[in-house]
Write a sequence for this structure.
């Protein structure tokens, strides 16, 4: 039985599709998302962001890697299996939601609403990446996140910088002071209590991470970035196992050409934290809000809003559903996958793990150089093709394990 | 002989008008400007910025106070004198330039080009204000200024805050650190050498400033501002006699609705200094640029541009041309004017003083609550009418002094 439905939400709709072969077969729920990040700065794109451009084995365009390429990979894998075998070795359900890039605000309520229809034995999430074309990987952990907006106001109106300059507080200067004070010289977050809930990595976990083939120089140089962050941790540890507090945007006063001699009335910033086990987003939100309010000079109006948050995820690396995925990857890539932790956040994965109580296997074929969230996002078509082959093997592997075997 | 001309520049044109009565009479050059500040944030205006709205004796609109209202005041004064007497008691020249709000970039070359036609015995600049409706004032000093843009870049492209967060420098955080470091806890500018050229006020000058009727609370409360600035100086001293280093604008990363989980590649800010005797704009520019480059973390690309600058002005308060203006103000307002210093900058005044070698009398009728450079700029029409009466008396006063007497 095949069915495709559009599920409306209070925000953007999700698409649900299922092909149920036989109730005795294992059921796999595949998760992806059809929404994408904004395209700005649009002037830095080499081609129109929504006009796919194929070049040198790459497909450029917004969403090609994050995450429409992965959805395409699943659909084409299904098509290939059906062409060859006429049926799937598992029951397959796909949910492609439309709000992942905005924190999946309505995903949990949508999921609860359709919980019966979404029931599965295992969930496969394809919104992650590998270390390189030659080194496959399975993601066993995701960071969570909390995203905030902070705004300060120091006067009722913009002021002439000559008439008032020297006499009054400048909201941009105030905000810069507040934000500059969020980290110390060693790159540690200064918000009191920020690290209290962080579970330290074991020596074994650090050793495992250190074995992951990963070239820091290449990672940084591919995007021209300057190394930064918390002292005392490797770059890989900092970007996957340590919490962050980033400024994602800032604004205030005059931003146009030339000069406007103004002391603005207001300034604001977008902040976000990547959260790790066992941090609680609500608690971190409370700590950051309190700290910013406390460090603002007297008389300055501070507004602080939570935009969205999402929990971190940790999947047992020893689960048979993960083993089967590792076997499929090994067969296609000719090399065992690394077990890695992703620094990014996929809030709905936590929802799926919690509401279905099934293992979540994070199987994605993105590459570090895909420029996701940035201008000129691209996907490597070779990765997509190998991903399709992997899925063919994986569904057969899950079929062989059976519903019982998948319970682990 | 009456003449009106439009003088083109490489930027915006100036308007020149003259009425020459008799070469034995003193010649007055009046300066004003017809350009205005940008109107943004336009959504905070109560009416369209260029649709004048009269209400309760006020005229709202961009430029009503700064500086078109002053030009209107001069034109209507001339009309009144001609209606009553058929001729002016002086030769009058008016130059209204079009680039004052952008640093008068072409004013000096324009002035040099037309130097012969601009020759005068005294210059009257009407682009300043008074302390209140009941307390007239003559401005004897203006601060100079330098306006800069600084941009930092930490990567080639925007980066996903999950994939890279914790591993790389964030340009907004870097910029906030650099800008937060420009002032110490006492509000003093930390740029080495910044105060080296500042001429300290004498005890007498500080006493004179302390006598100026000025209510700090009213000044701040009228715009809802929070007091700030350099410790150890009165608010009046800080805003008129001390140099500043302000952030006029800042930008970087995502500024839209909701969330974009990005580490931007770039961030930037507009900075400006108000300069006081004997600071040199080029020297201060060098110091600030060096300091920002020095305090940026290694690997961060820093670009720094001078947008424009202008010299401070100091006019001898004892000059007969100033005395005559004080007498005219006293006759109309019924109270002697205060001799004040303005915190703002009018770069062309320095040009006029230098190229014509004449006393510059700064006679303006703006009020602190005029909201110049801000939404809902307004002018008090009563101030304009009293200003016209004052000009009638002043031109007669200059006529009585004669060309010799005006030399001081």
């Amino acid at each position: 039985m095949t069915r495709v439905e559009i599920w409306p939400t209070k925000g953007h709709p999700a698409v649900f599709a299922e092909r149920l072969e036989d109730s005795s077969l294992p059921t796999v729920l595949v998760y992806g998302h059809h929404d994408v990040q904004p395209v700005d700065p649009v002037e830095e794109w080499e081609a129109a962001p929504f006009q796919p451009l194929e070049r040198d084995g790459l497909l450029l365009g917004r969403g090609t890697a994050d995450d429409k390429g992965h959805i395409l990979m699943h659909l084409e894998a299904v098509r290939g299996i059906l062409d060859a075998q006429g049926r799937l070795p598992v029951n397959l359900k796909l949910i492609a939601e439309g709000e992942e890039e905005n924190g999946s605000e309505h995903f949990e309520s949508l999921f609860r609403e359709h919980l019966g229809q979404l029931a599965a034995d295992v969930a496969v999430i394809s919104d992650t990446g590998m270390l390189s074309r030659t080194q496959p990987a399975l993601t066993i952990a995701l960071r969570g996140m909390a995203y905030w907006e902070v705004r300060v106001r120091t006067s009722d109106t913009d002021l002439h910088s000559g008439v008032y300059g020297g006499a009054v507080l400048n909201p941009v200067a105030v905000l810069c002071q507040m934000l500059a004070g969020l980290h110390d010289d060693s790159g540690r977050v200064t918000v009191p209590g920020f690290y209290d809930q962080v579970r330290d990595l074991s020596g074994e976990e650090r050793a495992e991470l250190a074995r992951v083939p990963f070239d820091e120089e290449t990672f940084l140089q591919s995007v021209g970035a300057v190394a930064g962050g918390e002292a005392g941790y490797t770059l890989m540890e900092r970007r996957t196992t340590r919490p962050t507090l980033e400024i994602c945007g800032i604004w205030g006063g005059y931003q146009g050409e030339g000069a406007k001699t103004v002391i603005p009335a207001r300034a604001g910033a977008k902040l976000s934290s990547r959260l790790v086990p066992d941090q609680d987003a609500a608690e971190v939100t409370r700590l950051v809000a309190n700290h910013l309010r406390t460090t603002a000079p007297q008389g300055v109006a501070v507004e602080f809003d939570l935009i969205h948050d999402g929990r971190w995820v940790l999947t047992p690396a020893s689960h048979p559903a993960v083993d089967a995925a590792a076997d499929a990857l090994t067969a296609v890539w000719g090399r065992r996958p690394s077990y890695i932790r992703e620094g990014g956040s996929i809030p709905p994965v936590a929802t799926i793990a919690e509401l279905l109580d099934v293992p979540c296997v994070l199987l994605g074929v993105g590459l570090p150089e895909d420029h996701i969230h940035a201008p000129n996002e691209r996907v490597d078509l070779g990765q997509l093709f190998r991903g399709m082959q992997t899925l063919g093997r994986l569904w057969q592997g899950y079929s062989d394990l059976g519903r019982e075997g998948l319970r682990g």
In short: Chain B touches chain A through 94 residues (CB under 8 Å). Chain B has two domains: 2-142+313-406, 144-199+228-310. The mean pLDDT of chain B is 94. The first strand of chain B starts at residue 2 and ends at 7.
